[in-house]
What does this fold into?
Amino acid sequence: MPFPQTLEAKPKIIFFTDFDGTITLKDSNDWMTDNLGFGQEKRRQGNLDTLHDKVTFRESFQDMMDSVKQPFPECIRLLCENIKLDPYFNDFYQWSRQVGVPVIVLSSGMTPIIRGLLVHLIGPEANDIEIVSNEVVDRPPKKKEEEGGWQIQFHDDSGFGHDKSLTIRPYAKHFEAHPDEPKPVMLYAGDGKPNCPGRSLNTGACLVLAVSSQTLPGVSDLSAARETDLLFAKEGYDLVVYCQKQGIPYTTFKDWQSIMATTKAIFEGKTTVKEVAAESAEKAKQGKD
Ligand SMILES: [Mg+2]
It folds into this structure.
């Protein structure tokens, strides 16, 4: 359900999440490029070129996808055979449905692929998950179902192809304008690594700007009321380091079992996002000493 309908049921928590490498174990776009497109070596070169600002993430990703010539339905079929979800994501999703926590996928990938994988691996109820991502369209004069017949259509004009903060921002603005309404806790889970090491920090930053603007100078137009929000950052990835450096409220996760435990505890009032973030900060400090 898109904004603002998401708010009609007055959810206690809204859960935004990345897809590739966060809900899935492997990145689906990397898999397609390596196995159906121009291969791993060229993909890595594209990653490096993005890292060194020779091309944007958007350009590099477009090149990757343009190198995949299989008809689009065939790509989805092969991905369903080769990409697995985190083994605990379905448990989390079933719990979120029961208690009325909307799950919104924000991805730099492609909506029909994400929908195809989620429905294949979870079942038809995965059709209820809102997905905000890039689209896939025909490549005229061909149709998507033909060899070389599809292309990516980016979500917006940003160098990321999809600026994830654009989806979160209206929620923040809504609660700025309606301070009397109970504000849901807004959580985000990500690995900070959509296809591209290094550049991932920027992509991570893009969503971090949306969830905790008050910690970053110069972004004061975003709501200070967002200070209770929390970012789940995948253990051992760049996003953790970024959060530590910027003082952004975060906690780490290994898989969706740990995300569910923390989210449930917040939902049930056994802890708060502030307590969770303080624990993570304390742990990180002890690790360094
Ligand atoms: Mg990712």
Notes: Strands lie at 13-17, 103-110, 130-138, 150-153, 185-190, 230-234, 250-253. The chain is about 45% helix and 15% strand. The domain at 5-288 is CATH 3.40.50.1000 (Rossmann fold). The chain has one domain: 5-288.
